[in-house]
Amino acid sequence: MKWDVLKKLVVLFITALFFVNVSGQKILLAESSGKLYSLDLTSGNCVTQQVSLPNNCTAQFFSIALFKDTLYYTSNGGLYRAVLNNPSPCKFLLNVPSNALTVDGDGMLYWQYGFDLVKYDPHTGTSVTLAKLSYLSAGDLVFYKDKLLMAAVEGIVEIDLHAQPVTDTLIMPTPGRAFYGLFSLPVDCNTNKVYALESSTTSKVVEFDLENRTILNTYCILPFIVNDAASITESGITQGITVSSIDIKQQCGINGKGSININAASATANVTLQYTLNNTTTNGDGNFPALAGGTYAIHISSTDGCTKDTVVTVKTVDEISVNLISTPDTCEAKKGSLFVQKITGTEPFVFLLDNTISQVSPSFNGLSTGAHILKVTDRNTCLLDTGFAIQSFSPTLPISSITITPPTCTAGGTVKLVYLPSANVTGAKLDGGNFAAVDNFSNIPAGPHFLQIMNGSCVFDTTITVPGNTSSPPLVSFTNESPDCTGNTGTSSIHISNILKPFSVSFNAGDYSSVTNFTGLAAGIYPFKIKDANGCVWDMTDTIPAFVAVKPLVQTNIINAECWQGQPGKVRLSMSGPGSPYQFDLNGTRYITGQQVQLAAGNYIARIFTATNCPVDSLAIIIKQQNSFGANCDTIYVPSAFTPNGDGVNDVLKPTVSLGTQSFTFRIYNRWGQVLFETRTAGEGWNGKWKSMQQSSGTYVWIMECRDSAGEKKIYNGTFVLIR
Fold it and tell me: Which stretches does DSSP call E strand in 532-612?
């Protein structure tokens, strides 16, 4: 493609704070020293400018991917997410020792780790290995149309994610040329063009013709080496407009106007759409109400110059009319029913009763007395909204007489029922419970009661009242105190009301007296009797609760032991609460609240006592070992750079492992994910060579897997710079 044609297709400009795109285009570069740059191809030259994220995220950018306004990047072995033009901080997602990163049209991330192709959902945090590929990535992935492309050492590899299993094929060999980066730019509303980064002392931007699988001209040369590139179209999306759904409501009869609701989207971020109906009505939401039956032309345009046209037909159909046939509810037992008889409308119908019961059957049973709402929808989405009422029918109470006797001091009242001969009564119940084949109830207290009688078709409800006895049961309450842990120190105060006076009390089988306060009690259940002025006696119980340890409010101040300076740990416990002043036992010694105790590192149990020496709580005390800076004693250190030039100074990169580490495996990777060095021996390091060949200057990734002094598995990672 000629330079002047490319200039018309790619229009970008850079702002001081970040970058702004024309036609939805964005290009970012991760420079080899870890900085982030924007790339402008407008002039036919590579114009770059260092940029900073608006939310001031600090990072060493290694591999990058761009999905609309979301930037994903790897830094120091970790994967991060930043939303552009958003003040929220960058978010760490997970550890990723990979240098080949891209994203698809659904926002799913892909990378290669060794020969494994991994897919990651940044919304759920789940990842899955899709396949073990035949080719090793040279540094980047990008989507073109519906295929995933990879820049491999041998050339351009096409990965078919739709195949089962996933396959990878070398579609464009590039012998003698090393391409490690891929990015794409839109050339019109429906087409993207792919560019590659070629390695040398600097990075070249080279144009590809993937349709004919040929390498075109070198577009321009960058002033530095690039680790990775990203663009707004690397997911394979184009600038064009996609119609996702069209919802049509037909015109129902003469008055029921139809509507069209069309949903579309542009692949380009920050682009708005305009919808025009029959070249007359325009809006921004695609919703066109109150339409008569007919055919309508809809034109969709986007602010980045793309268009989409479609034709939609609104039909004129019969409106819904029905005839409702209902039966009444007998005895308000939810026995009413409704049958919906169709008159007009288009089957099938959906019936919605009271906005809760939805069904396709026109029959409803088990309806209660009262007003109801029915909505009917037919195949054409026509709607009928109407109301109806279920009437109530109740027969006469099937009783000829009721005999009631009041309660006495020794027995409750009684209720005797005489049913009508033709009532066919099957059961009765008083104040709830289950229906039983009875005609009398005994031991009934004075007052109103709810009587229900059932026959074959109905449940009859009525209220009866049992007269009261002059000796009604007393109202009793208690004020009790629990004994403490030292003995029988509980108390009980019995409060009696609603009783004929004078009354007397017999507590715990003692003599009747007017005493209602009792002391020196152990925890337990105590029987007592109350006798009123008529001689009516009521048996009751009083419960003295057992001693309950009320936990105090504890403030704990712990200073951990310093493992590198040999300083012991310190702990101070301060307690407050109803059992003050508190004391505590720690490591075999008793201390008062607020006292500071020196302890070696380890796990301890502190037992807390009240002022009366009752144990009320215990808590675990953990004194940790740490160094002077508060870090864990099980730690490692890896330099951030080394110079393997043979001068005897900093010629080998090796980890420093603490004495507490039981075992470890230390590996070094290049930006292609190859393992250059591995050791399990303390003091052994990398000399900057791989297979006896000196490796070039640049950034490398290290990963340390080890077990600390407690045997727990740990993983550390980071990057360093090789300087020659």
Answer: 537-544, 553-559, 561-562, 569-576, 583-586, 589-592, 596-599, 602-609
Give bridge partners of residue 321 from the DSSP assignment: 344
Which pLDDT does position 618 carry in this prediction? 92
pLDDT confidence band for 558 (50 / 70 / 90): very high
Distance separating alpha carbons of residues 110 and 116, to the nearest angstrom: 10
The verdict on 370 and 346 lying in the same domain is yes
**pLDDT, tens digit, for every residue of 101-115?**
999 988 999 999 889
274 and 327 in a common domain: no
pLDDT of residue 25: 47
Rg, the chain, Cα only: 43
CA distances 143 to 38, 150, 194, 231, Å, are 20, 9, 9, 11
Q: What CATH number does residue 564 fall under? A: 2.60.40
The helix or strand, by DSSP H or E, that contains position 9, with its residue range, turns out to be: helix 3-9
Same domain, yes or no: 10 and 159: yes
Whether residue 686 is predicted with pLDDT greater than 70 in this model: the reply is: yes
Question: How many domains does one find in the chain?
Answer: 7
Tens-place pLDDT, residues 566-600: 578 899 999 999 889 999 999 999 999 999 999 98
The full DSSP string for 661-690 is --EEEEEEE-TTS-EEEEE-STT--B-SEE
Residues 162 and 247 grouped into a single domain: no
Judge contact between 141 and 133, C-beta under 8 A: no
Residue 607 lies in a domain: yes
The per-residue pLDDT for 10 is: 30
Residues 500-526 pLDDT 10s: 889 999 999 999 999 999 998 988 999
pTM over 0.70: no
Q: Which two tokens stand for residue 700?
A: 């490398």
Q: Which residues pair with 677 in a beta bridge?
A: 668
In a domain, 592, yes or no: yes
**Span 694-724, pLDDT tens digits:** 999 999 999 999 887 678 888 889 999 999 8
CA 514 to chain centre: 65
Domain boundary among 580, 608, 626: 626
Tell whether 487 and 595 lie within a shared domain: no
Domain match, 597 and 709 both:
no
- Structural domain range at position 281: 241-317
Residue 698 maps to which CATH number?
2.60.40.1220
Residues 97 and 150 in one domain: yes
Dihedral sign for Cα 84, 87, 93, 97, please: positive
What phi and psi, each to the nearest 5 degrees, are found at residue 378? -105, -175
Q: Are residues 86 and 170 in the same domain?
A: yes
Token pair 């005493």 is found at 515
For CA atoms 337, 343, 345, 347, the dihedral sign is: positive
pLDDT in tens, 214-254: 999 888 888 888 888 888 888 877 778 878 789 999 999 88
What's the CATH number where 253 sits? 2.60.40.10
Please write down the long-range contacts of 505-511, taking CB distance under 8 Å and 24 or more positions apart: 505/529, 505/530, 505/531, 506/531, 507/542
End position of a domain, from candidates 231, 255, 277: 231
Residues 668, 652: Cα–Cα separation, whole Å: 13
Which long-range contacts (C-beta less than 8 Å, at least 24 apart) are formed by 626-635? 626/560, 626/561, 626/562, 626/563, 627/562, 627/563, 627/564, 628/562, 628/564, 628/565, 630/560, 632/708, 633/563, 633/564, 633/658, 633/660, 633/709, 634/658, 634/660, 634/661, 634/708, 634/709, 634/710, 634/714
